Amino acid sequence: DAMVIQNPRYQVTQFGKPVTLSCSQTLNHNVMYWYQQKSSQAPKLLFHYYDKDFNNEADTPDNFQSRRPNTSFCFLDIRSPGLGDAAMYLCATSGTGDYGYTFGSGTRLTVV
Amino acid sequence: DQQVKQNSPSLSVQEGRISILNCDYTNSMFDYFLWYKKYPAEGPTFLISISSIKDKNEDGRFTVFLNKSAKHLSLHIVPSQPGDSAVYFCAAPLDTGANSKLTFGKGITLSVRP
After folding, report:
1. A9, B42: Cβ pair inside 8 Å?
2. N or C: which end of chain A has fewer CB within 10 A?
3. SS3 for B84?
4. Over its length of 114 residues, how does chain B's per-residue pLDDT go in tens digits?
Protein backbone atom coordinates (compact mmCIF):
# COMPACT_ATOMS: atom_id res chain seq x y z
CA ASP A 1 0.00 0.00 0.00
CA ALA A 2 1.21 3.47 -0.83
CA MET A 3 1.83 5.34 2.35
CA VAL A 4 3.78 7.79 4.49
CA ILE A 5 6.06 6.21 7.05
CA GLN A 6 7.66 7.97 9.99
CA ASN A 7 10.48 6.55 12.03
CA PRO A 8 10.82 6.13 14.87
CA ARG A 9 7.31 6.19 16.35
CA TYR A 10 8.73 7.22 19.71
CA GLN A 11 12.01 9.04 20.27
CA VAL A 12 13.60 9.99 23.56
CA THR A 13 16.50 12.38 23.41
CA GLN A 14 18.57 14.23 25.93
CA PHE A 15 18.36 17.96 26.38
CA GLY A 16 20.71 19.55 23.87
CA LYS A 17 21.53 16.33 22.00
CA PRO A 18 20.86 16.53 18.25
CA VAL A 19 18.09 14.31 16.99
CA THR A 20 16.83 13.41 13.53
CA LEU A 21 13.33 12.27 12.65
CA SER A 22 12.67 10.64 9.32
CA CYS A 23 9.78 10.42 6.90
CA SER A 24 9.47 8.38 3.75
CA GLN A 25 6.69 8.08 1.22
CA THR A 26 5.75 5.68 -1.53
CA LEU A 27 3.10 7.98 -3.01
CA ASN A 28 5.53 9.89 -5.25
CA HIS A 29 4.01 13.11 -3.97
CA ASN A 30 5.93 16.24 -4.79
CA VAL A 31 5.15 18.17 -1.61
CA MET A 32 6.22 17.13 1.88
CA TYR A 33 5.39 18.94 5.11
CA TRP A 34 6.56 18.84 8.71
CA TYR A 35 4.14 19.83 11.46
CA GLN A 36 4.68 20.08 15.19
CA GLN A 37 1.74 19.30 17.43
CA LYS A 38 1.74 19.87 21.15
CA SER A 39 -0.96 18.56 23.42
CA SER A 40 -4.36 20.23 22.91
CA GLN A 41 -2.93 22.55 20.29
CA ALA A 42 -3.38 22.83 16.55
CA PRO A 43 -0.71 21.23 14.38
CA LYS A 44 1.80 23.95 13.52
CA LEU A 45 3.56 23.97 10.17
CA LEU A 46 7.34 24.12 10.50
CA PHE A 47 8.37 23.92 6.84
CA HIS A 48 7.58 22.22 3.58
CA TYR A 49 9.28 21.16 0.38
CA TYR A 50 7.74 21.68 -3.01
CA ASP A 51 9.90 19.22 -4.93
CA LYS A 52 13.38 20.39 -3.91
CA ASP A 53 12.31 23.91 -3.03
CA PHE A 54 12.53 24.45 0.71
CA ASN A 55 9.98 26.74 2.37
CA ASN A 56 10.49 27.76 5.97
CA GLU A 57 7.73 29.26 8.07
CA ALA A 58 8.68 32.66 9.46
CA ASP A 59 8.27 31.59 13.07
CA THR A 60 10.07 28.25 12.85
CA PRO A 61 13.05 28.38 15.22
CA ASP A 62 16.54 28.10 13.74
CA ASN A 63 16.98 25.05 15.93
CA PHE A 64 14.87 23.15 13.41
CA GLN A 65 16.31 22.16 10.04
CA SER A 66 15.14 19.90 7.28
CA ARG A 67 16.60 17.91 4.43
CA ARG A 68 15.01 16.27 1.44
CA PRO A 69 17.64 14.24 -0.39
CA ASN A 70 15.16 12.78 -2.86
CA THR A 71 11.43 12.58 -3.59
CA SER A 72 10.85 9.75 -1.15
CA PHE A 73 12.61 10.94 1.97
CA CYS A 74 12.49 13.98 4.21
CA PHE A 75 14.28 14.52 7.52
CA LEU A 76 13.68 16.83 10.44
CA ASP A 77 16.80 17.75 12.39
CA ILE A 78 16.57 19.36 15.80
CA ARG A 79 20.05 20.67 16.55
CA SER A 80 19.71 21.28 20.28
CA PRO A 81 16.41 20.00 21.61
CA GLY A 82 14.92 21.83 24.54
CA LEU A 83 12.19 20.69 26.88
CA GLY A 84 9.76 22.84 24.93
CA ASP A 85 10.40 20.82 21.77
CA ALA A 86 8.71 17.77 23.20
CA ALA A 87 5.77 17.17 20.89
CA MET A 88 4.29 14.96 18.20
CA TYR A 89 5.97 15.60 14.86
CA LEU A 90 3.81 14.88 11.86
CA CYS A 91 5.01 14.39 8.31
CA ALA A 92 2.51 14.82 5.50
CA THR A 93 2.52 14.73 1.73
CA SER A 94 0.37 16.03 -1.06
CA GLY A 95 0.42 15.32 -4.75
CA THR A 96 -0.31 17.36 -7.83
CA GLY A 97 -3.87 18.65 -7.66
CA ASP A 98 -4.43 17.51 -4.08
CA TYR A 99 -6.18 19.77 -1.64
CA GLY A 100 -5.49 17.63 1.38
CA TYR A 101 -2.65 15.69 2.90
CA THR A 102 -1.69 12.12 3.59
CA PHE A 103 -0.14 11.97 7.03
CA GLY A 104 2.32 9.58 8.58
CA SER A 105 1.69 8.13 12.01
CA GLY A 106 3.87 10.74 13.64
CA THR A 107 6.91 10.61 15.93
CA ARG A 108 6.38 11.36 19.59
CA LEU A 109 9.50 13.17 20.82
CA THR A 110 10.36 13.25 24.50
CA VAL A 111 13.23 15.43 25.76
CA VAL A 112 14.80 14.46 29.07
CA ASP B 1 -3.50 34.13 15.15
CA GLN B 2 -5.68 31.09 14.72
CA GLN B 3 -7.61 31.42 11.49
CA VAL B 4 -9.50 28.21 12.13
CA LYS B 5 -11.06 27.87 15.55
CA GLN B 6 -12.55 24.89 17.30
CA ASN B 7 -13.70 26.41 20.53
CA SER B 8 -15.14 23.33 22.19
CA PRO B 9 -12.31 21.02 23.20
CA SER B 10 -14.46 17.98 23.79
CA LEU B 11 -17.84 16.41 23.14
CA SER B 12 -19.46 13.32 24.61
CA VAL B 13 -22.48 11.65 23.01
CA GLN B 14 -24.42 8.45 23.38
CA GLU B 15 -24.00 5.74 20.78
CA GLY B 16 -26.65 6.07 18.07
CA ARG B 17 -27.18 9.77 18.65
CA ILE B 18 -25.98 12.64 16.50
CA SER B 19 -22.56 14.24 17.05
CA ILE B 20 -22.18 17.84 15.94
CA LEU B 21 -18.66 19.23 15.83
CA ASN B 22 -18.29 22.94 15.16
CA CYS B 23 -15.59 25.00 13.49
CA ASP B 24 -15.32 28.75 12.91
CA TYR B 25 -12.93 30.60 10.66
CA THR B 26 -11.86 34.19 10.34
CA ASN B 27 -10.56 34.41 6.77
CA SER B 28 -13.38 34.97 4.29
CA MET B 29 -10.99 34.08 1.45
CA PHE B 30 -10.90 30.43 2.46
CA ASP B 31 -12.49 28.44 -0.35
CA TYR B 32 -12.11 24.87 0.83
CA PHE B 33 -12.39 23.09 4.15
CA LEU B 34 -11.35 19.66 5.33
CA TRP B 35 -12.01 17.51 8.36
CA TYR B 36 -9.42 15.08 9.65
CA LYS B 37 -9.84 12.36 12.25
CA LYS B 38 -7.03 11.31 14.56
CA TYR B 39 -6.78 8.30 16.83
CA PRO B 40 -4.21 8.29 19.67
CA ALA B 41 -0.68 7.45 18.51
CA GLU B 42 -1.70 7.70 14.86
CA GLY B 43 -1.51 10.45 12.26
CA PRO B 44 -4.62 12.32 11.13
CA THR B 45 -6.62 10.75 8.32
CA PHE B 46 -8.78 12.63 5.88
CA LEU B 47 -12.50 12.35 6.59
CA ILE B 48 -14.52 14.73 4.44
CA SER B 49 -14.18 18.09 2.70
CA ILE B 50 -16.34 20.85 1.30
CA SER B 51 -15.80 23.54 -1.29
CA SER B 52 -17.02 27.06 -0.56
CA ILE B 53 -19.34 26.86 -3.57
CA LYS B 54 -21.40 24.28 -1.68
CA ASP B 55 -23.24 24.45 1.60
CA LYS B 56 -23.41 20.73 2.26
CA ASN B 57 -21.42 17.62 1.50
CA GLU B 58 -22.44 14.16 2.61
CA ASP B 59 -20.51 10.91 2.78
CA GLY B 60 -22.28 8.06 4.50
CA ARG B 61 -22.77 8.88 8.16
CA PHE B 62 -20.75 12.10 7.84
CA THR B 63 -22.14 15.41 6.63
CA VAL B 64 -20.39 18.75 6.62
CA PHE B 65 -22.41 21.97 6.51
CA LEU B 66 -20.94 25.32 5.54
CA ASN B 67 -22.42 28.70 6.44
CA LYS B 68 -20.24 31.26 4.66
CA SER B 69 -22.05 34.30 6.00
CA ALA B 70 -21.39 33.13 9.55
CA LYS B 71 -17.91 31.77 8.69
CA HIS B 72 -18.95 28.55 10.34
CA LEU B 73 -18.92 24.90 9.44
CA SER B 74 -20.07 21.84 11.27
CA LEU B 75 -19.50 18.12 10.98
CA HIS B 76 -22.49 15.89 11.72
CA ILE B 77 -22.05 12.21 12.46
CA VAL B 78 -25.25 10.19 12.42
CA PRO B 79 -25.54 7.72 14.01
CA SER B 80 -22.49 8.03 16.23
CA GLN B 81 -20.56 4.83 16.94
CA PRO B 82 -17.94 4.05 19.61
CA GLY B 83 -15.33 3.74 16.84
CA ASP B 84 -15.90 7.41 16.05
CA SER B 85 -14.22 8.33 19.33
CA ALA B 86 -11.20 10.35 18.21
CA VAL B 87 -9.90 13.89 17.82
CA TYR B 88 -11.41 15.77 14.88
CA PHE B 89 -9.52 18.61 13.24
CA CYS B 90 -10.99 21.25 10.98
CA ALA B 91 -8.54 22.63 8.38
CA ALA B 92 -8.41 25.11 5.52
CA PRO B 93 -5.86 25.78 2.75
CA LEU B 94 -4.06 29.08 3.25
CA ASP B 95 -3.86 29.72 -0.49
CA THR B 96 -6.20 29.01 -3.36
CA GLY B 97 -5.45 26.06 -5.55
CA ALA B 98 -4.04 22.66 -4.88
CA ASN B 99 -0.95 21.84 -2.83
CA SER B 100 -1.60 24.72 -0.48
CA LYS B 101 -0.44 24.71 3.11
CA LEU B 102 -3.19 23.79 5.54
CA THR B 103 -3.99 25.61 8.75
CA PHE B 104 -5.64 23.56 11.45
CA GLY B 105 -7.87 24.13 14.42
CA LYS B 106 -6.97 22.76 17.85
CA GLY B 107 -9.23 19.77 17.44
CA ILE B 108 -12.26 18.42 19.27
CA THR B 109 -12.09 15.19 21.24
CA LEU B 110 -15.23 13.17 20.58
CA SER B 111 -16.19 10.40 22.97
CA VAL B 112 -19.05 8.13 21.97
CA ARG B 113 -20.46 6.22 24.94
CA PRO B 114 -21.76 2.70 24.31
Report:
1. no
2. N
3. helix
4. 789 999 999 999 999 999 999 999 999 999 999 999 999 888 999 999 999 999 999 999 999 999 999 999 999 999 999 999 999 999 999 887 667 899 999 999 999 999
Chain A: closest CA distance from residue B52 (Å): 13
Q: Do B100 and A99 touch (CB under 8 A)?
A: yes
User: Residue A84: which CATH number?
Assistant: 2.60.40.10
What is the domain range of residue A55? 4-111
Chain-chain contact of B106 with A45 (C-beta, under 8 angstroms): no
Query: Which residue on chain B is closest to A47 by alpha carbon?
Result: B101
Chain B residue at shortest CA distance from A106: B43
A45-63 in b/e burial notation, b at 16+ Cβ within 10 A? bbbbbeeeeeeeeeebeee
Number of residues assigned to chain A: 112
Do the chains contact at B101 and A48, CB–CB below 8 Å? yes
Sign of the CA dihedral running A86, A80, A106, B9: positive
Quick one: fold of B4-113? Immunoglobulin-like (2.60.40)
Residues of B in contact with A92 (CB under 8 A): 43
Q: How many domains does chain A have?
A: 1
